[in-house]
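User:
I would dearly like some help making sense of a protein record. Take your time, and here it is.
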Amino acid sequence: MPENLFEQLPAIDKWLASETGISLTAEFARTEVVDVMREHLNEVREGISNGLTELPDFNSPEYAALIRSDLLRKKSPSLRRIINATGVIIHTNLGRAPLADEAIEAMVRIARGYSNLELDLVSGQRGSRYQHVESLLCRITGAESALVVNNCAASVVLALSTFASGHEVVISRGELVEIGGSFRIPEIISKSTANMVEVGTTNKTRIEDYAAALSSETRVLLSVHPSNYKIIGFSEKTDSRELATLAQQNELIFMQDLGSGALADIKTGVSVTEQLVQKSVADGADILTFSGDKLLGGPQSGIILGRTELIDAIKQNPLLRAFRIDKLSLAALVATLRLYLPPNDPAKKVPVLRMINEEEKSVDRRARNLLRQLRKIPGLTGTVVTDVSYGGGGALPMSEIPTSILRIEMAGMSAGGLARRLRETDPPVIVRVKKDFLIVDPRTVLPEDVNDLVRAFRQIAG
């Protein structure tokens, strides 16, 4: 009877006093062991209620090993290094841009001790954290002045709240985008306490539409990068130079959110529509915002470029303190930006650019080398075929990068089941599943991850 099974469940105190409990509490904190024991007892109670007719042997070595496994899993950090075998280069769910070695080393140097984050070493007086990065950004982009905050959405809110709070922001209906995490441009404009004025249509917005919407309340003309989509076919988009001219003629601010923030040309044959930051500066945008952790290849950050008097005004906004960049991200950003200065070649030094620019024949060679290792695993079969990688992360929308992938099958296991098992390895391996095949794209597998990738498949094969 179920009632008898409930009565046979061990009390926590007695279980702790057993050989199993004594062994576990010698290795783990008593509170940790108690929590896991209670979780197991609750699961068994639920099982009894659902028809379980026999209890497990709670004092067996096998059950002790099961509890120990759960304890070890709970002690491991939830934020972990993973292997990206998806072929999506700037993967938002996987942390976007992997950092260059120089950026990582810069973070470690600053993290180990104190720094002159806000100290002027010449005068000995308080300085500004922004001075460490401003001149670099201006040198690379040609902008008059620069400011960095903790992410791109913050940079948009900060700029709009500085220049358009209580007034109107004019934006094309075709640019009312939703970015990652269900954040929408209309909501961001609202949070900046500005009033949004929509112009044009989804597929066509002309300069005349902007001009017709101007009023005494207008303060900003806003252009936003279409994050994860592209309008094609019967469409028309107003050129940034036209918007800059209209803003200048009416003493308004033309603000352009570039999203990805490309500072260097993409060298592959892929059709790329990302406008370089340098071009937007030259076209006359008054304020530019973009991310530091997408095509730029740095840490999470939001970069604001613009005329000196406008950047100075933003620096006086009280919200800046809430959005300010931390010292480790700042160190990584400075180190990444230096890779864009001669004699460095960012296409070779910045990991995301290196992945995007890697030639297909190079990826194919790596795919075949990887397959030779994997074929030694019993039960695993695979082939190398051509496919496409993706920029991802709101970068290079609809741009497909020619690549070579591995299509893998493992005896007795579905593609979805194998993908799940790979997520359970250490480090977890993230792959794609397509038409009942497991897909591994070497383009996003870092060279130092290859051995761990092969070991993960070996562990699953047993």
